[in-house]
Amino acid sequence: MSPASELPILLYHLGSPLSKRIIWYLALRGIPYIQCMQPRILPRPDLARLGINYRRIPILSIGRDVYLDTRLILQKLEHLHPSKPRLAALATPEHRAIEHLLEVLAIDSGLFKSVVQLMPAHLPQLQDPAFLRDRADLLEGMMVFTPEALTAARPNAINEVKNVVEFLETTLLADGRDWVLGTHGPSIADIEAVWLLHWISAVPGALPPDQISGVLYPRVFSWIERFQRTVSSAEKLISAPQTVDGEQAMEIIVTSLFNETEGLVDENDPVVKQQGLEKGQFVQLWPTDSGSRHKDNGKLVSMDNKEVVIETAAGDAVVRVHAPRHGFQVCAFEDGEK
């Protein structure tokens, strides 16, 4: 197998806030990649070619291993190009804890939902019935996504986001440091903390200036601007990514080697024990928060307390699809061979 740093890195994305988490990371570490641009709403036939029903973006492949969920993607990218400085917190257990807790704050605490609810109802995309149907499908069970629902939820959403901005202003950024961990440059902790605020602060009319602004919270807004300047400078130092179409992307993936050796199924895992799961068995995999109606089927390759890997058909080849255990459900799929 070739070293992982020699395998092609391919990012399926659409320039969304979640996609930017990965784009920023790649730029800050100077890692080259190929991109396959995706439509804003379903269907996404480029991913269906890989046997993938998962509807969230971005998705990243390293060779013939495909990774779902930006949290797992960031973890995997940290192991590439060891000659380049990593962005993860390595200094102290406290730094690693802060990094993880900022990830939880952004994704698991409800902050993402509150930021979405700050989107002004008059935005053009919120007048598009196709976009509204697509996002209602994505966010089913999490929130009602209509202009009327967003307007009704806005006051509480303002308060939730304001509390987070105030928290950053008065704690991690209170001493005037440039980056949340006091590092020389942005770390993954900064990416975890900044991406939602970076997104919503750029949407005209989303943040009420009498509640959330650079005047009221100068450290936070200076940090957001500093992060953008730093990323923009990093992007100028690397070549722009090559853009390929879906057929080209699939060919790049299926003609590559695997990034990781094939793992095992942990027989002591509670879900494995409960369901009697075995390596090679057909299973179904899906996220439990958003996009949960879109489930992937494949042969179970490996599973432990951190990650599950299934094998899906990509034409005449196979790819391995990786997902984190946190936020995903796995179960036996009896109709797998039909």
From TrEMBL:
Which residue range or ranges hold the DUF7962 domain?
Answer: 116-236
Q: Which residues form the GST N-terminal domain?
A: 14-84
Name of the protein this chain belongs to: Uncharacterized protein
Recorded hits in Gene3D superfamilies, A to Z, give:
1.20.1050.10, 3.40.30.110
**Organism field:** Mollisia scopiformis (Conifer needle endophyte fungus)
